[in-house]
Design brief:
Length: 360
């Protein structure tokens, strides 16, 4: 198991092999209860009811957020008069790639989607719906942020502004495709309602850049790993499109078990491969192949489960908060200890040596 390997592979070595994960139990299928989510119920033969019953998404520490940032600082960063080091040629090249829109034919639906949804039943159906909902919310969050950045940067840097606008186009496409997937289950997220109702989390621009790059790389390794697994094990394919770190996934291990993956092994594979990929860009990366790293993740999973259990208890709010305090302190302590682990210096990397690995 990759998670138990300690600093045994140089970061410069990458593998395209399909990971070997153990196959856990399958579900017993039964009728599922009503799903609590911010949705509008629809009928298979009618348009979504705009006045449908809307319920709030259950907020937790790991719920997908809507983000905002310091737009004035963003304008300063991309102002060519202030920041003379901006490489406009690279921005122009990037813009042309977005305009070419290589992914425009990747999102094609057919009758197999609805047919597959109708066959899903029991806990796996409910878990899959929740997964679609969370993924759609996350993509829509990116759409809102990039759209505003595109609007705000039009005068400061039209090229970068258009790049952000096209990024928002892609995120909107992803959100729309996922929401259409929900319609196969006779559900639809009310994205307009979400825009007005959700609270926005502030991130400084530097964290927006870091988090965006990292989340895209994490997403790539999650999706390609699931794709390769299902290609090698077609008996687990239950829906034509699959959407998807450690704490979050461990709350939804049934989803991964339902398609024949071991959640923790899957997550550690994604973390390790993402780390190796980001080492091409970042000067230092976490020592994720050190057993201490996984040990701390496992302890955080246990603490997080206890925090969730407190929230589900019948105690009064004051008692719940008192019980949460030591647990949150323990979680913060583990996070801090993980952050303070000595990093691996990745240094300068010649991207040409990875050229063949950059292709799907």
């Amino acid at each position: 198991m990759a998670a138990k390997m300690a600093l045994l592979k140089p970061i410069s070595k990458f593998s395209n092999d399909t990971p070997k994960f153990s196959t856990p139990r399958m579900f017993s299928h039964s009728k599922f209860s009503t799903i609590k989510m911010s949705v509008t119920t629809t009928s298979t033969s009618t348009k979504p009811n705009k006045k449908g019953n809307k319920t709030a998404i259950k907020e937790t520490l790991l719920t997908p957020r809507f983000y905002t940032t310091d737009f004035d600082e963003m304008e300063t960063l991309f102002n060519t008069e202030i920041n003379k080091n901006l490489n406009n040629d690279e921005f122009e090249a990037l813009l042309q790639e977005f305009k070419t829109d290589y992914n425009q034919t990747h999102f094609v639906r057919n009758n197999k989607f609805k047919e597959a949804a109708d066959k899903l039943d029991g806990p796996l159906r409910q878990i899959f719906v929740e997964f679609l909902e969370r993924s759609c919310t996350a993509e829509f969050s990116g759409f809102l942020l990039y759209k505003e950045l595109g609007r705000r940067l039009k005068k400061t840097n039209p090229v970068v502004a258009e790049i952000f606008s096209l990024m928002s186009r892609d995120e909107a496409r992803h959100a729309g495709f996922l929401n259409k997937g929900l319609s196969d289950f006779n559900l639809a997220l009310d994205l307009g309602f979400l825009t007005k109702a959700r609270k926005y989390t502030f991130f400084k621009p530097k964290f927006i850049f870091y988090a965006t790059y990292l989340s895209e790389k994490i997403g790539y390794w999650r999706y390609i790993t699931i794709y390769r697994h299902l290609k090698a094990n077609p008996e687990y394919q239950c829906y034509p499109v699959y959407v998807t770190m450690y704490l979050n996934d461990c709350q939804r291990s049934d989803f991964y078990e339902g398609i024949g993956l071991n959640t923790k092994e899957f997550d550690m594979h994604v973390i390790i491969e993402t780390n190796r990929t980001t080492a091409r860009i970042f000067p230092a990366v976490l020592d994720v192949e050190n057993p201490e790293f996984k040990g701390r993740l496992d302890r955080m999973v246990e603490i997080n489960e206890k925090i969730l259990a407190v929230g589900e208890s019948d105690d009064i709010p004051v008692v719940k908060n008192l019980k949460r305090i030591p647990l949150i302190a323990a979680l913060v302590s583990e996070l801090l200890a993980t952050y303070l682990m000595p990093p691996i210096e990745s240094g300068s990397v010649d991207l040409s040596q990875f050229e063949t690995q950059l292709v799907y």
